[in-house]
């Protein structure tokens, strides 16, 4: 008889595990307090780029595996995934001969932009081909696909792992929820606020970590971010912050002032100094949480490791 697996959490971490496990002979149930669109994963921009993971060598393989997975899916437009140009700029006051993130980028995806094409104030810029994951399309797509593959989804808050005695394996993908579920206070929120303006999908993604400013032209809106606010638990936007973010964008691209402002949102990145992907010793519990600002960038690489851990239980 096939093993029964409970996955707790229906964000990108939980759904990516469910997807890879559904390719094997498992009986899978996903329990979640909330589903798309009411979860952090929907608040992501979400382009592939390593962030909050650059000091962890495990991240290199996880990021590259996820990149390859999304690149393959981008051939089907109904997934909401496309390959996009990302312009990553470094300002004059930042001297980085070989940026750390470079090791995470698949070979051939990154090119230096010639100096004579740089805007004033920019010391160096890169043109990088990355997956753009439109969360509003991809998360429901993945959930529907899993339902068709007989994965069961149940809305339920799990307060203790012993509420799931009938399962052979439990996979914890609760993000920030692990603060309570695992008493793990090392996972903390890093709030991100973003403004939304009418989209111009032909624009590349723009990323300036020093300002910080990122502009992500999705189909539903152009996302203008963002903030990285440690230990803020309120999932709320502040009008003055959103105005500042939009002004940052207008300073670099004055033509964006023509685009109507259509909203804003905030989300809490589940940050942990090291992402937790491991089996808890002496138990049937596998943890997969704490992906910070890189949940989509890491998801399918981490999920592959979870599948490996599940197979040896
Ligand atoms: C503004 C912003 C921009 C971002 N941009 C990017 C980006 O461009 N690229 C990128 O890679 N990442 C980005 N991120 C980060 C990314 O959103 C997160 O890393 C990712 O969504 C985390 O996914 P998760 O599935 O681990 O957690 P979540 O999406 O938070 O999902 C957790 C799930 O667990 C459930 N849950 C929690 N506790 C319990 C419980 N006790 N019982 C049952 N269910 C429970 C929740 O209901 C939910 O279903 C961004 C984040 C923000 C806020």
Write the layout of secondary structure elements.
Elements: E1 3-8, H1 12-21, E2 26-32, H2 40-43, H3 58-73, E3 81-91, E4 110-112, E5 122-133, H4 135-148, E6 152-155, E7 169-172, H5 178-181, E8 188-197, E9 205-208, E10 213-217, E11 222-225, E12 229-230, H6 239-252, E13 261-279, E14 285-291, H7 295-311
Parallel strand pairs: 1-2, 1-7, 2-6, 3-9, 7-14
Antiparallel strand pairs: 3-5, 4-5, 8-11, 8-12, 8-13, 9-10, 10-11, 13-14
Helix pairs in contact: 1-4, 1-7, 3-7
The site of flavin-adenine dinucleotide has 42 residues, from helix 1, strand 2, helix 2, strand 8 and strand 13.
Could you give a short description of this structure?
The protein is α/β, with parallel strands linked by helices and 313 residues long.
Summed up, the domain count is 1
The CATH topology is what? Rossmann fold
Instruction: Please provide the ordered H/E string of secondary-structure elements.
Output: EHEHHEEEHEEHEEEEEHEEH
The ligands bound in this entry are: flavin-adenine dinucleotide
Point out poorly predicted stretches: none
CATH architecture assignment: 3-Layer(aba) Sandwich
Main β sheet profile: 14 strands, mixed
Helix/strand structural class: alpha/beta
- Count up the helices: 7
Strand content: 25-35%
Helix content: 25-40%
* Number of strand segments: 14
CATH homologous superfamily name?
Answer: NAD(P)-binding Rossmann-like Domain
């Amino acid at each position: 008889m096939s093993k029964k697996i409970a996955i707790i959490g229906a964000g990108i971490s939980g759904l990516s595990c469910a997807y890879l496990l559904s390719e094997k002979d498992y009986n899978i149930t996903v329990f979640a307090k909330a589903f798309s669109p009411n979860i952090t994963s929907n608040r992501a921009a979400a382009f592939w780029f390593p962030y909050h993971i650059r000091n962890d060598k495990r991240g290199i393989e996880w990021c590259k595996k996820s990149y390859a997975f999304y690149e393959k899916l981008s051939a089907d437009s109904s997934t909401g995934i496309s390959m996009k140009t990302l312009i990553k700029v470094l300002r004059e006051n930042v001297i980085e001969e070989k940026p750390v993130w470079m090791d995470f980028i698949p070979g051939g995806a990154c090119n230096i932009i010639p100096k004579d094409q740089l805007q004033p104030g920019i010391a160096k810029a890169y043109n990088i081909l990355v997956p753009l994951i439109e969360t509003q399309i991809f998360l429901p797509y993945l959930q529907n696909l899993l339902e068709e593959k007989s994965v069961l989804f149940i809305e339920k808050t799990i307060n203790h792992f012993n509420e799931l005695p009938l399962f052979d394996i439990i996979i914890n993908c609760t993000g920030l929820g692990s603060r309570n579920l695992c008493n793990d206070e090392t996972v903390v929120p890093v709030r991100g606020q973003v403004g939304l303006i009418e989209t111009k999908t032909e624009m590349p993604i723009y990323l300036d970590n020093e300002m910080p400013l990122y502009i992500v032209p999705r189909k539903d809106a152009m996302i203008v971010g963002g903030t990285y606010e440690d230990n803020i638990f309120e999932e709320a936007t502040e009008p003055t912050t959103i105005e500042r973010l939009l002004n940052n964008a207008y300073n670099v691209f004055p033509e964006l002032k023509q685009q109507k402002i259509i909203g804003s949102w905030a989300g809490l990145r589940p940050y942990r100094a090291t992402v937790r992907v491991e089996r808890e010793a002496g138990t049937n519990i596998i943890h997969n949480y704490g992906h910070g600002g890189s949940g989509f960038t890491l998801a399918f690489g981490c999920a592959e490791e979870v599948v490996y851990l599940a197979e040896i239980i």
